[in-house]
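Q:
Got a chain?
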Amino acid sequence: MVKVIDWINYEEAKDLTESVGGLGGFFENGMRWKDYIEVFPKNFIPYLEAIRDSVIENKLRYTGEFHQYGDTGVPVFSDNTCASMSYRAWADLMAAIWSEHEDKDYNYMDFYM
């Protein structure tokens, strides 16, 4: 089982292999977690679920900008890989997590910057 073991900055993450990443900007009001994960390859899902668990546990509401420029915006996984995403892709992820967890509509623009 993959877990998030740390949160580091983008510069530190450059030395790690990316296990999940990409571009985004598709998550709209009314969508939930199931809508989000269905667009990804199966090998991404354990990493996305690990991020989701860590985000909820630690009550993180990181924007895409913070993901790339914050001190602790990049998750590191138990297999020593990381997630590296565009602003919009990260915003999709956050919107999916919090829409499902709070049963409230968010879209990627709520977490973009």
About this structure: The beta strands are 4-8, 17-22, 74-77, 81-85.
